[in-house]
Amino acid sequence: VIILLALTIIISYYILKIKKIYPSNSAEKGRKLDVFLQEFWDWEKSPYIKERLVHKHGIHKMYVKRSLAAVQNYWIPWFGKKKLLSNITRKEVQDFVMSFMERKSPTSAQAKNDIIRSGTIALKWAYNNGLITKDITKGLSYYTGDSPKVTILSPEIAKVLFLRPWKHRKAMLANKLAMLTGMRSGEIQALRKCDIGQDCIYVSHSWTALDGLKPPKNGSKRVIYVPYHDFLEELRNLVEPEDGFVFHIRSVYYPMDAKCWLRNLRYELKRLNVDKEIIENIHFHSWRHYFTSHMKNSGNLEQHLLQRMTGHKTKSMVEYYADHTLQQDKTKIKNAVQQVFDSMFSTD
């Protein structure tokens, strides 16, 4: 009897231990939707985020922060705090999606879809991991629409803009670099002295305040050829240590805020008496469109070489907007850049 009692206690102990480590679905069925969504986008707690990091699939703190804000500002107010994860239906999610037709903001299709996906990604994961019995995200309709019109400067205005001194020299150099290379603002923030070659820039990182240095968008490093030695030397002279950030203010190991570059761009355009509507609608990212547009329209660079320069993964992205390079490709790229931008370096 004593042996049987001891065995019963031991077996009960291990059953309880197993249930604690591997909770049954019945426990999950009582889980609140709002709790699940917030924990799903919690950088420290989320099993989804841990999976992404383990498998080296790109996910960054800024993206997670925006997704968490989306579920807190849209999903939870719509579904409430009493809704159970196991009880949510496809129709309820579809009704939530359709509600954006009546909302005044956000206005763009992309912004609406980003909010919707902050919840549907979580629900899809819940289905794949057995937390809900149906994939209620399958076949959902998302919003489509034209990409917002991007304002870019004319070559004539750009030339005058960079042939005169700016109040903020680093802001001028950052804007000029964006124009000459099509680099994203985070990539320019991440630029260090060691990334500047004799005739090129090695784009190996991007920067956000939350993530610090991270791989560039799409995870691909690339080389951008800049056939203006004096300009590259001017960038190198902005910082002393090889691992220091080129665009810094106080510490060479922390980059400056990219918002400064747009503020100063608009300020300098205002000094040139540029049309007020252009000033209001210009963005730092407009330089990426400027570069892609003028390089494409020059007709001197094949599609695959332009994609190599911009880091776009698809031809469609190039239309909207570091690997080994053969010497002949390098020459083609440099010649194409010079044809488009040489006038910026001439006072004629």
At a glance:
With 348 residues, this protein is mainly alpha-helical. It has helices at 2-21, 25-29, 33-40, 47-54, 61-79, 90-98, 109-128, 155-162, 169-181, 185-189, 229-236, 259-271, 276-281, 286-297, 303-310, 315-320, 327-341; strands at residues 200-203, 206-208, 212-214, 222-225. β2 and β3 form a beta hairpin.
Instruction: Report mean pLDDT, rounded to a whole number.
Output: 85
Radius of gyration (Å): 26 Å
Gross morphology: elongated
Counting DSSP E segments of at least 2 residues, the number of strands comes to 4
What fraction of residues sit in β-strands?
under 5%
Give a quick account of the main beta sheet: strands, pairing sense, barrel closure: 2 strands, antiparallel
Q: Which structural class matches the secondary elements? A: mainly alpha
Order of helices and strands: HHHHHHHHHHEEEEHHHHHHH
Keywords:
single chain; 348 residues; mainly alpha; two-stranded antiparallel sheet; two-stranded antiparallel ribbon; 4% strand
What does this structure look like?
The protein is mostly helical. It has helices spanning 2-21, 25-29, 33-40, 47-54, 61-79, 90-98, 109-128, 155-162, 169-181, 185-189, 229-236, 259-271, 276-281, 286-297, 303-310, 315-320, 327-341; strands spanning 200-203, 206-208, 212-214, 222-225. 53% of the residues lie in helices and 4% in strands. It has a two-stranded antiparallel sheet. A two-stranded antiparallel ribbon has the order 2-3. Residues 18-27 and 317-325 have low confidence and may be disordered.
